[in-house]
Amino acid sequence: MSTTTLLCFHGIGTCREEREPGESRYWVTQDAFQRMLDEVADAPRAGLSFDDGNRSDVDIALPALEERGLTATFFALAGRLDDPASLSAGDLRALAGAGMRIGSHGWRHIPWHGMSDADAQREIVDARAALAEAGGTPVTEAALPLGRYGRRTLHRLRAASYEAVYSSDRFPARDGAWLRPRYSVTASDPPASVRRILLGRFRLEERRNALASAVKRLR
């Protein structure tokens, strides 16, 4: 069975103002990010994505990706398209025009686990429609905000016909799987840690994470 190691970034550079507690923990410095991308460029089976739709995605990440011939999926927030610190409709079109994929991270960056039906409609269905219109490209994939999910969340996403859903469960993703685990990169992760992840140096931990993911799908 073939697998791919998927890395997830959130913000690149400096988090100047946290919009929610602990956000700065998920921002990596520009220098560290460049070195991490060099590791990815040399890895045979690695993938990249960016959550939260921060402006650094287009200002810093896009040029660095293009320089190395890499592509990524950008999971944006529909409710922040008018936020100067976030990706705009024009930014989404620029990313899509550069060969990047646009996915949905919902509307407000709230957990999807335990949502009401009304919230689910807005977060899972309406947000995707708004992002597709803004970016001028189909949106077929979603990333779970804050990594939280359960059986009902996954059922709602399948009912909405998403082709793939991304978590933060930290083990390699089986090629062709619908639910795809990723490794979120944080400010405390040195480039060497990304190299170890890509080389598969955490197999025992990954097996535990895979088991935890299986339990979540049954809740």
Automatic annotation (TrEMBL):
This protein's UniProt keywords: Signal
A GO term for molecular function: hydrolase activity, acting on carbon-nitrogen (but not peptide) bonds
NodB homology domain sequence ranges: 44-219
Organism name: Agrococcus pavilionensis RW1
Name of the protein described by the UniProt record: NodB homology domain-containing protein
Domain of life of the source: Bacteria
Gene3D superfamilies assigned: Glycoside hydrolase/deacetylase (3.20.20.370)
A biological-process GO annotation: carbohydrate metabolic process
Principal localisation: secreted
GO-annotated cellular components: extracellular region
Location in or out of the cell: Secreted
Cross-referenced InterPro entries: Glyco_hydro/deAcase_b/a-brl, NODB_dom, Polysacch_Deacetylase
